[in-house]
Amino acid sequence: MKDLSPSDLKTILHSKRANLYYLEYCRVMQKDGRVLYLTEVNSSRNNGDNQYFNIPIANTTVLLLGNGTSITQAAVRMLAQAGVLLGFAGGGGTPLYMGNDIEWMTPQSEYRPTEYIQGWMSFWFDDEKRLQAAKQFQAARIAYLTRVWGKDRDLGAEGFTTDNDLIKGALERFNTRTEQATKSSDLLLTEAQLTKVLYKFAANNTGTSDFTRQHQSADKANDFLNHGNYLAYGLAACTLWVLGIPHGFAVMHGKTRRGALVFDIADLIKDAIVLPWAFICAKENATEQEFRQQVLQKFTDHKALDFMFEQVKKVALQGTQVKGDKL
């Protein structure tokens, strides 16, 4: 059976899908490009052989796993690609212990704190207030980069410092254009211009020749940038899960882009930590594991997750009254 792309698996709308499965006492797994569940049969008729049954994931809306079930990572990956909602439940399908919001599992509890989502909604539907929130995140992003590059001795030894005239000029232009922006597309353009300068600076610093940002590239610098960005997305998603703010309520990356708020929050730390270490580790020909350990350690050293929580809570609880964050 040929492998199917995620887009092929999403051709049937959830409202038109036929199946909701509840499974007990079985193991769900991926086998030969399909999601199957395995049952142990002890009857003499089947000679104690295990039996596999196919789950038609492209036409399935919900998969509930009850008592005595287990599931492999490969199966979860395929279910996520197909957009199948995954839940863990008690006997008979109730109560629901854990539900899957397409890709990310979040605790199901009616008693979760609500002040952050309520605060977020108090400004989100106002275009001007949403723009001011985006500007606040951008200001905090530059403040964090300035702090990290100013105190991290390892980065300083590699030449990553804000004392450089090129970086100073780029940050000044960024601050000016951010303040003058009248819509989110202006902010995205300003962000792209700054990132281009930072890429050039990092490439020159590490002797990386002919660097071009390519998300599908096979060179180490691009691979490490991709890997590090996903680590930052994970921290951003954790922040939003805990605070109960859905990923769709973005302030900069677009109201209709799936998971866009995760990208907004991840941007707070990507330039400061992921970008320089991707180039440094590529120069040193580090392995993927070594790069990951280095970035995770720097996230810890510079309290990246704490910083994300501080900024999101500030915007949610205080709206746009606070302009930027002085670190």
Q: Any low-confidence stretches, pLDDT <50, length ≥5?
A: 320-327
Summing up helix and strand content along with how strands pair, one would put the structural category as: alpha/beta
Strand order of the largest sheet: 1-5-7-8-9
- The number of distinct helices, counting runs of at least 4 residues, comes to 11
Taking all Cα atoms into account, the compactness measure Rg is 23 Å
Strand proportion, as a percent range, falls in 5-15%
What's the helical proportion of residues? 40-55%
The SSE order reads HEEEEEEHEEEHHHHHHHHH
Q: Which overall shape is indicated by the principal axes computed on the Cα atoms?
A: globular
Round the mean pLDDT to the nearest integer and report it: 84
The major beta sheet can be summarized as: 5 strands, mixed
Annotation, overall tally of beta strands: 9
End-to-end gap:
55 Å
